[in-house]
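Internal QA ticket QA-208
Title: Verify multi-chain structure generation after dependency bump
Assignee: T.L.

Test input:
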Amino acid sequence: MNAMKQRMIDALYPSRLSYWAMRLAAPLAALMLDRLADAYRSLDVATTARLRDNFALAFPEMTETAREELIKKHWRSKFQSEFERIQLNAMPREQLIRFCRTHVEIEGERNFRAACESSRPVIFFTPHYGNFAFACVHLTIEVGAYKTISFFYDSPEVNPTTAMYKGLIERLECNAKTLYNDKTAVLKGLRALKNGNALGMMPDVYEYNPGLMYVPFFGRLAVAMGGTAFFALKSDALLIPLYCYRRSGGRFIIKYGAPVELSRTDDFARDMYVTTARIHADMQRQLTALPEHWVYWPTLDDRFGFAARTELPRDEWGWMERFFALRSELAEEHSSLAGFLSSFEARLRHGISMNRCRPGEMNGEAMPDGAARAG
Amino acid sequence: MKSLLKHWGETLLSGMRGRFSEREEAEALAYLIREMLDIPAREATILARTCASRRAKLHRLCASGKPEQSLRRLKRMHLPLDVAKAARTFETYSSSVNLLSLPFTASSIHLLVYLFHNGQRQFRFLNTPLASKYLRPLIVEAEDGGGVFLSAAEMVEDSRGRRRGEASATTYVTFPDHQLTRADTMWRTQFLDEDYQFSTLEPLLFLRGCGPLLTLGGEATGGRAHLDIIAYPAPPPADGGAESDVSALLKWLGERMSVLFRLAPADVVSWEYVYARSCRTRARNTVMKLKEVEGYIQAWRSTGASLNAETYAWSVKELRELQGALHGSAPRPRATLG
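Actual output:
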């Protein structure tokens, strides 16, 4: 029975009839999805409230009306993405390839071509933004002519919701592999890059492990994984940002950004940090320009770890003063951690004041990477 | 006469040794219970004594390897779970496959032994150190593979096999309070008002169709705890589920487990495991806080102002050393960092 159903789908989907039926029904379907999303926005009070709080955190200057409009857009984008994901998942190979080739407009194609034609390995990174599944499929098809591309994602044991992506990539029968983020991930990833091939990564996911770090993101310190920077630095890969979002008429825009510059100093840990911070700065630019498409807005505050209230100073000064706010938020009063941080702060203050007393010593101005070597 | 005296002497010594070790265990338990439940020392000591003595009895029963005799004695232990009633509740959820996720308590052991020996279902038990010690001697593997102890990976594999058409009714039994899976499959969830880590095994099995998910719920009436089986209220999502479904399920399990640990602390067998994991989670949180401080120093340095190279270097070095020490440390009591 199931086989018969699958045969019917296989026969119907690639047909011209179904293609035109889908195209004609698309505006109506989009309208219905928008209405459904609006209804959910009112019903799912908790998520809407979190969205409101997180948009206020990220865009404090935004007016309340603009924020409400953004919440509406975010809900609608979420529903459309889910619908598109189901559509993609149901499409047989030929239909999938045709859909991904005909429903897309490319921005920054020069960056894409240059990266593919380069002998250097390439890492394409995208946050969970817009229709990232569509971006992955499109990337698989287009990069396949130049390089083998491998995608990292959580195994279904770690995250039971990722099972569909493996099927989607495999169905294309292109030059692509899927790699699980497990203990062998580092080796697998490096092997994939060794011969000048490509890797697809999503740096906006995280789990609490020893490899994580906190980088500036929307004015606060947000948790980030160093994996993307690690692979790029170890293999000297080009780091190409990729963003996919929809526009009207059921079409998508895929935007390939200019390569993110890798930090190169003698301190590998510092390089990892700076490169990861640059990746996040790139994502923040896109998320600020068109915020509604990012999937993780409802949980933005979770990323800010234990010090969500402490904003980073906006200029070069005020860092020493703001450290007190950070340590007060991180450690309970009278705890051992509070004691440690208090003495740490005193020594920081002392170190800075000593430096001020020594005229002529390099103060780290405007060359953070090189300056780190002095330590 | 001599041998008789020797025998008496040995019995006396062994009894004294047993009492001494039980007392030591009770003292250690009192500390754990006080730390975990945040209750006065006196109350914790009384609870710990009951708990240690119950555990000793339970261990003797389980080590005997005689299920029927053990069931009779378990019944006489006045546990907070009415096993016959719970078994009837269990029957109402007896679909072709279900998932029984229990805290490792004396009541849970009683229930599992009872269900295993009085029902027609096949049981797949998650193999944990406590399950091996207490449960395994009472569960005799049936010829049809009825009572099998599996690792988490084997259990997932077994559930896949079942979906391919195995017909017999099966119950998967897991122990979320102390079971351990790979570090990346442990999700952060609240338990006893603190950060804790639960394995994603239950959500994975549930989202893949091993439902309903059952656990023990409880309430205090007439000054006594009364437990019964309850089911996870949400149906498995049709589309395979999202991360929010995993979080919601773990949150629900964490809440139910917290209720049981508070309601019947003397019934709990897994205190040491729970405490060790809680300490590890706490140490991990402290490492994360130190990483946040390090992130601040790194971001400060990147602005290129006011933080000189020397101060930057020692501060990052010191923060990393402390992170390394904490990350590799054994479980430590609450009074330490954090």
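Spot checks passed. Chain B touches chain A through 60 residues (CB under 8 Å).
Status: verified.
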